Amino acid sequence: MQNIGEYVVQHRDRFIKELVELLKIPSVSADPAFSQDVMDTAQAVARSLEQAGCTAVEICETQGYPIVYGERKVSADLPTVLVYGHYDVQPPDPIDLWDSPPFEPVIKATELHPEGAIFARGACDDKGQFYMHVKALEFMVKTDQLPCNVKFMIEGEEEVGSRSLAAFVEENQEKLSNDIILISDTGMIAKEAPSITTGLRGLSYVEVEVTGPNRDLHSGLYGGAVANPINILAKMIASLHDENNHITIPGFYDEVIELSQEERAEMAKAPFELEAYKDELDIEAVYGEKGYTTNERNSIRPTLDVNGIWGGYIGEGAKTVIASKAYAKISMRLVPNQDWEEITTLFSTHFKNIAPEGVKVKVTPHHGGQGYVTPIDYVGYRAAAKAYETTFGKTPIPQRTGGSIPIISLFEKELGSKTILMGFGLDTDAIHSPNEHFGVWNYLKGIETIPYFYSNFTEMSKQ
What we know:
Blueprint: H1 4-10, H2 12-23, H3 35-52, E1 56-60, E2 67-72, E3 80-86, E4 106-108, E5 117-119, H4 127-142, E6 149-155, H5 165-171, E7 180-183, E8 195-200, E9 202-211, E10 217-218, H6 219-222, H7 229-238, H8 261-267, H9 274-281, H10 294-297, E11 303-311, E12 321-322, E13 325-334, H11 340-353, E14 360-369, E15 372-373, H12 379-392, E16 397-401, H13 407-415, E17 419-421, E18 437-439, H14 440-461
Parallel strand pairs: 3-6, 3-7, 7-17, 8-16
Antiparallel strand pairs: 1-2, 2-6, 4-5, 5-18, 8-15, 9-13, 9-14, 10-12, 11-13
């Protein structure tokens, strides 16, 4: 790739300044008080795409916040890359835990980022990461090195569940048609250990309610004679795992595919120090499904966790009461091939079946999504890996992560294309938390790496 490194050095200050200006706009999609700011951000994104070289840019209206679309076509005979990102950000609360105002970006050095990191809400998730693609396009257009067609779809509702995205994708399949989707909304293991996310877990999230007597009861008059919903709920939840921390729901593992020893060995190359992991969390031991490592438990294996549990009296002092109801919120992280709706049904059936007489059980599904995997022998993965090798000087590690991005399975279903996740953030970047930041080095390295993906993918697609 001709002069990409020189171009990044030459335009470094401008690239940073442009991102800083974008980060100043408080595009918080969850809070209606920021609705105009979100709209202003969409306008800013559209202008940036035009300036970078997109020949057609639209701000597409939806039932919610708009989706910014841009494209630059080279030839119908060449592949098309669709870049997805989001311009909305998480609420900055709690504000008092920020070292600097969340929408007044500052650049300061840290131990991991001696060259500086940009501190602001959205710096890494996802303004900084999608803007890398805008600047990569600028380079390819300005130097006449864009090897294929490119499209952009940057939405404004990712942080509130991408409420309008499914309808937009379904209604615009021809506009969005592509050969591969490229996303930077994930991270890598470390600056010295580049990685590509190849797998994401799916999600099933439910709320359960256990009802006993028709009102709260005096624990002295009724204790021992009437089922206590809180006691019952605790026992039911405890029974969902066996002594090996294996989930006991019948049929839960039927579609779980065991990874090959080859891929597990590749994943195991990721640097990981168990003692440092325990020290960071202030725990004496790790915990999880027998037969798997810590990194495998939180990425390639399904899980079931209680996210909240409540019922009865929790105020000051004592109140001797048997509560009428008890509640819990439960999330199940799923691996590819596990259908979230099927798992939700299996959970609901099982949870009702294990309830003893004397209580009634209600299970309310909240939301969910499918898992996703990109095979490491796929042409898109090989093109991305070669790009990292060029700019990092190292072969990236394939990494499956425990999080979920349900829209990726939507893209594959509706558009029929695979997704490559080229994230350049770090776990320490505090996304969704106070003091979110994105390393200047990471930001510029992303801009440098992305054009190589385009050239590699175009060349490999011919073979």
